[in-house]
């Protein structure tokens, strides 16, 4: 490219100016990028995260910031599209953000991650649940404050083999995306664990008038526990028929079964059934404080992933404060080793970036209500 | 061997359930050559009526036997009145129309009734009380076949016997058979064809309502959509046995129920529908009119 001499000198001056200005500016504030869908169909998933981060930043700044530096939020929209997310990420990198909270959708997150990785910026998503993001090992800069899609299956299998100490498990599903997907993870984890055997793996037809044949098959397989992937209507029919046949086999289901309708419909046959579900965080004072602040500011209840986003923002700011630096390696060390107090309780992160302390807990039906086990 | 017997009972239960609904399909088809797609919805309405009536009676402290009998009567009468009304409103005006028109009318009626119950009741599953108690004498066999399974078997056997006797030995039955053979000729010999058709709808609907009560009590929950799936299966069973034929509907139902149970038991429940419908295709290839259906010659 050929520029006239005059333009060149102006450009040079500008570049030098920018170069001088940027570090001076960066030293004033710590920049937190927030990326996600802030417009379009899925904006309702992304905006609560932006608001949550702003609230946490406001809270930290009100206490004097971190090491004398104020925090600043830079929000960028990716409309949950992978092709837009790469631009979003490039923009945030060029704005010299120190850390990123986001992205919201798994696909967009996956597309953006290599750009942050190459720029050595840590990313924490409140909502991207694809197991691959942490398990592939491709993104050492990635953290999340939500349980992965396979976390329920792992919780169910760990509970059945570890706590209940059962070795023969029948895996039943409803052939749907949710149910079959979960059942396949369950089977994989049973095989990987080596402590138990999946003696049966079958799909039932939702809406059928009678499940006694498959119940007989469960009985014949000698299973001590049934792990069911699917929703509560079929679960209550299967449990009902198992108990009618005087089978005492344990029954475990995912959050699709942890529904009050299940107990209402299955009645006394629901007693003793286990189901996974997220821990109740509404009583936590941190949750209450930020929910109150949100309602005062916006006049509505916060939306999807708000608590997860609060946790991400708190964990990140906490790690920057404890690391006393914005160096990624120093922040990462704190994230892995020290806990942060979030709406979900004290959390830290495993080596692969999965949260320790956020996940599913087991509930059991006792006296007609789901009660948390442990 | 015990496993085989267990599966056998499980298949017979399913078969009886299908039979109670399939009889209504086959009777209507036999008389007026119409596939009454709203029949599954009559079954669902019977179940909902039973729920309301049995809950009310239980609250007033009636003994269980009285609750069951009164509920069955109420459900049968209520569902029968629906069956009668549907025929008057949706099918009778179209009796001389091309065959496709009443069929569309039937599908419309089915969708209408589903949405009516959805709006009037709820979209959620609602619990249904166990109207059939766990009999003490059944306890030693409870692991093989439950009391409610047994009740379904016995009631559907009784229903079939009564229905067959009615058609064979009563004046109404004779009139039904005549109407089925030739409507115009029946009219000429003084049979009130409109009445006969109404009676057919009433009988079929009452049977479906009894089925609805028994099945809902067996599986313990109902919603507005149960009629659709049960209806499709029962319709399949009726076609399998030869639509229009009453023993055919019963035979077809048991074949379908047993195939599903044994396919689940010995192969995989993933494939129960595959087996059931493959069997249907096979039978229809070799016997296009179904197992007991009469191959009718179209007069052109």
Descriptive report:
In chain A, helix 3 (82-94) packs parallel to helix 4, helix 6 packs across helix 7 and helix 9 (232-244) packs parallel to helix 10 (260-266). Helices cover 47% and strands 20% of the residues of chain A. Chain A has helices spanning 5-28, 43-62, 82-94, 106-118, 132-135, 151-163, 177-193, 212-221, 232-244, 260-266, 285-298, 306-323, 328-337; strands at residues 29-36, 70-77, 99-101, 122-125, 142-144, 168-173, 197-203, 225-229, 250-253, 274-278, 340-342, 345-349, 355-356, 360-366, 369-372. Chain A has 13 helices and 15 strands. In chain A, strand 6, helix 7 (177-193) and strand 7 form a beta-alpha-beta unit. The longest helix of chain A is centred in the N-terminal third of the chain and has 24 residues, at 5-28. In chain A, strands 7-6-8-9-10-14-15 form a seven-stranded mixed sheet, sandwiched between helices. A five-stranded parallel sheet of chain A has the order 2-1-3-4-5, with helices on both faces. In chain A, strands 11-12-13 form a three-stranded antiparallel sheet. Chain A has 374 residues and is an alpha/beta fold. Chain A is elongated. Chain A folds into two domains: 31-146 and 283-356, Rossmann fold (3-Layer(aba) Sandwich), CATH 3.40.50; 151-272, Response regulator (Rossmann fold), CATH 3.40.50. The mean pLDDT of chain B is 90. Chain B has one domain (2-229). Chain B is globular and about 60 Å long. Chain B has a two-stranded antiparallel ribbon. Chain B has 300 residues and is an all-alpha fold. In chain B, helix 1 runs parallel beside helix 5 (147-169) and helix 5 (147-169) packs antiparallel against helix 8 (193-219). Chain B has eleven helices and two strands, in the order H-H-H-H-E-H-H-H-H-E-H-H-H. Chain A binds chain B through residues 175, 202-205, 207-210, 212-214, 216-217, 219-220, 232-233, 236-237, 240-241, 244-247, 261, 264-267, 269, and chain B through 3, 6-7, 9-11, 13-14, 17-18, 124-127, 134, 142-144, 146, 148-149, 215, 218-221, 223, 225-226, 228-230, 233, 260-262, 264-265, 268-270, 272-273.
């Amino acid at each position: 490219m050929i520029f006239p001499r005059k333009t060149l000198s102006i450009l040079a001056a500008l570049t030098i100016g920018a170069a001088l200005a940027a570090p001076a500016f960066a030293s004033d504030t710590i920049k937190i990028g927030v990326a996600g869908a802030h417009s379009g169909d899925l904006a309702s998933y992304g905006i609560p995260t932006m608001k949550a981060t702003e609230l946490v930043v406001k809270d930290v700044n009100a206490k004097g910031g971190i090491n004398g530096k104020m925090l600043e939020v830079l929000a960028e929209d990716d409309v949950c599209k992978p092709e837009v997310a790469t631009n979003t990420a490039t923009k945030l990198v060029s704005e010299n953000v120190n850390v990123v909270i986001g992205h919201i959708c798994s696909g967009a997150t996956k597309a953006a991650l290599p750009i942050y990785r190459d720029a050595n910026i840590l990313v924490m998503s409140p909502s991207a649940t694809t197991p691959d993001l942490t398990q592939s090992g491709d993104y050492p800069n990635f953290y999340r404050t939500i349980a992965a899609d396979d976390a329920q299956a792992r919780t169910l299998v760990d509970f059945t083999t570890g706590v209940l100490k059962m070795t023969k498990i029948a895996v039943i599903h409803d052939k749907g995306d949710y149910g079959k997907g979960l059942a396949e993870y369950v089977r994989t984890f049973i095989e990987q664990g080596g402590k138990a055997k999946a003696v049966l793996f079958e799909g039932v037809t939702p809406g059928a008038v009678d499940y006694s044949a498959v119940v007989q098959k469960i009985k014949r397989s000698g299973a001590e526990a049934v792990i069911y992937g699917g929703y509560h209507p079929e679960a209550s029919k299967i449990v009902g028929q198992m108990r009618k046949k005087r089978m005492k086999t344990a029954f475990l289901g995912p959050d699709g079964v942890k529904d009050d309708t299940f107990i209402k419909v299955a009645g006394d046959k629901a007693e003793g059934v286990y189901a996974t579900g997220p821990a109740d965080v509404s009583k936590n004072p941190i949750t209450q404080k930020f929910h109150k602040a949100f309602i005062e500011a916006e006049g509505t209840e916060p939306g999807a992933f708000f608590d997860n986003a609060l946790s991400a923002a708190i964990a990140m700011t906490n790690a920057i404060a404890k690391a006393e630096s914005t160096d990624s390696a120093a922040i990462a060390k704190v994230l892995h080793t020290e806990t942060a107090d979030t709406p979900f309780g004290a959390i830290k992160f495993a080596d692969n970036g999965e949260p320790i302390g956020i996940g599913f807990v087991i509930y059991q039906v006792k006296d007609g209500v789901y009660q948390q086990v442990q | 061997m015990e496993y085989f017997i267990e599966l056998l009972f499980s298949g017979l239960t399913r078969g009886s359930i299908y039979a109670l609904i399939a009889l209504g399909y086959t009777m209507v088809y036999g008389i007026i050559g119409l596939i009454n797609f709203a029949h599954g919805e009559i079954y669902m309405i019977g179940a909902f009526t039973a729920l309301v009536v049995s809950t009310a009676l239980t609250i007033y402290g009636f003994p269980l036997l009285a609750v069951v009998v009164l509920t069955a009567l109420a459900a049968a009468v209520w569902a029968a009145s629906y069956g009668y009304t549907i025929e008057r409103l949706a099918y009778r005006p179209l009796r001389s129309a091309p065959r496709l028109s009443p069929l569309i009318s039937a599908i419309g009626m089915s969708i209408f009734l589903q949405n009516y119950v959805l709006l009037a009741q709820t979209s959620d599953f609602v619990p249904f009380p166990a109207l059939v108690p766990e009999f003490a004498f059944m306890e030693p066999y409870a692991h093989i076949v439950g009391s409610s399974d047994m009740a379904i078997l016995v009631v559907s056997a009784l229903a079939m016997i009564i229905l067959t006797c009615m058609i064979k030995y009563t004046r109404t039955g004779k009139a039904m058979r005549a109407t089925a053979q030739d409507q115009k000729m029946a009219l000429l010999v003084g049979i009130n064809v409109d009445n006969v058709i109404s009676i057919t709808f009433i009988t079929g609907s009452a049977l479906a309502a009894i089925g609805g009560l028994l099945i809902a009590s067996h599986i313990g929950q109902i919603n507005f959509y149960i009629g659709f799936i049960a209806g499709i299966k029962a319709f399949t069973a009726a076609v399998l046995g030869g639509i229009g034929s009453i023993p055919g509907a019963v035979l077809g139902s048991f074949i379908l129920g047993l195939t599903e149970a044994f396919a689940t038991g010995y192969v995989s429940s993933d494939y129960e529908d595959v087996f059931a419908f493959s069997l249907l295709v096979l039978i229809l290839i070799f016997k296009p009119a179904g197992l007991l259906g009469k191959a009718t010659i179209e007069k052109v």
